[in-house]
Automatic annotation (TrEMBL):
GO terms for biological process: ubiquinone biosynthetic process. This is ABC1-ubiquinol-cytochrome-C reductase complex assembly-like protein, putative. Residues 40-72 are annotated as: Disordered. Pfam families: ABC1 (PF03109). It comes from Rhizoctonia solani AG-3 Rhs1AP. Residues 233-475 form the ABC1 atypical kinase-like domain. PANTHER family: COENZYME Q8, PTHR43851.
Amino acid sequence: MSPPGRLYDALTVAYAAAQVVHRAAVIGVEKNLPSVAYGTVPRPRNNPTVVETRPTATAQEAESKGLSSNAETGFKIQPNTWTYIQPHSPVAQRLSQGTDSQASILNTSAAQLQDEPILTAKTRQDNFDYYEDTEPAVKLTPSRVPSSRLGRLFHYGSLAASLTAGTASEYVRRAARGSGADAGSPMMSEANVSRLVDKLSRMRGAALKLGQFLSIQDAHVLPEQIERVLRQVQNNAHYMPNSQLEQVLRAEFGPNWNEKFTHFDPIPIASASIGQVHKATIPPNDTPIALKVQFPNIAESIYSDLANISTLLTASALLPRGLYLDRTLAVMKGELADECDYEREATCIERFGEFLGGENERFRVPRVFRELTTKRALAMEWMEGVSVAKGARWPQRIRDQIATDILTLCLRELFEFRLMQTDPNWSNFLYNPRTDKLELIDFGASREYSKEFMDDWFKLLSAAVQEDRDACVEYSLKLGYLTGAESQEMIDAHVRSVTLLGVPFRASTPQPFSFKSQTITDEIRALIPVMLRLRLTPPPTETYSLNRKLSGAFLLCGRLGADVDCRSIWERVAGAYKLG
């Protein structure tokens, strides 16, 4: 074929593929976005408080560094003691001025320290450094959110055109240099990857949320080139410039919106797919709050965005048939509409607060400030904890307890509340060392499950725990996972994936179960291509959110390297479940 003919073919293929890849590239984009990272202390540039602990086995006396706003502030403490201190507190000031020794501070009675933000707690023989970086984990860049349907369509079209041109250019460049197929896809050149990352970060909305839906928690369903884009998009986030932010705040709170706050930080601490989070204080006592502000017209753009995505992806062959894109997008529409309703989220927060409000609970749920909450703005209590995503180097005892709490909560949400916060984002869980509790945030993805569905799903998971293959097939048919006409290969793969979920909870499994060395997620991942190829029916709609959360809980326990007595959790939570 002549070079012009090959170029024409390349352009034809690239034009269709380019429109698909930039949408498929959002798979998993929110996995590490700190959409809920507002449980940190204030950033150094805002009247800072930096938190640091430095257990040092050789420490003999107190030390304190300078207290400038950008300094890492802390002091050495006794071996095997975890100390949490606010550097600008009177305690830190006295230490820095040399008026008190470390010993006198740490030996002070609790009554004398009741107003001081300091806590000491004995740990095992763990020596570790802990520094809570108060800056966002991703790069935040101001850019105006495309808010009109025509404007968003223009951005999609311009991306497709630029990718097509970039692909053609890369094809010609490789042809001139004689590069072969081993050079990789010309569509995923360095220039095109940069275009994808930039545009996806700016668009927000359904384009980013699609990733959370189509991804199966590290299942690697998509080609490696697309995952390469995702890794870069995860490290970029855009937020509204001040002019656009003020338009939104005026629309929600009126022209004098600023009078509702004693302080409002216009630079968000986090920005995700449908909104961004700001720190503010409110009268009369300068109470700190986290204010979620929704991007303009993002709720109205969901349906048009998904319609465009559906048309492009359906016309391509890039995604496996077993994903059942139409069903996925239909479920996604409903869930996204729920997430865009901040008044609904406020109600979910309050319901979880009722479920977890007991004195013996190991969880804290933020208070909602209803007077500052609308469908597009949500005001919540500022939580002081640290994202558990940063806990890889924390003491083993603490990591084990956090994992135990998260797995316990996951089962309670299913079998006790029948209301689950389904977003598996690790930053939705904050650990507060002062209270030794988990703080829960971001309830937009909460959903309920019917008693009928949960009864059958409980029986299915119980069958998996008991390794009852026949019962797994029976309840998979009843729930709609299987039709009865599947090949034996498909049935075997499905039953195997279900029974793997029950492994940590079995009486025959050594306890505590080591999530660090577990292979469950890898084994399930290996079965996914078979199920996508041979599946005859889409899974129940409840499965999209339920499996997302369960797999996320397992992965979080693994990331923490935790050892958990899963059997005891199962006996305690599942043992209390009442059928019928």
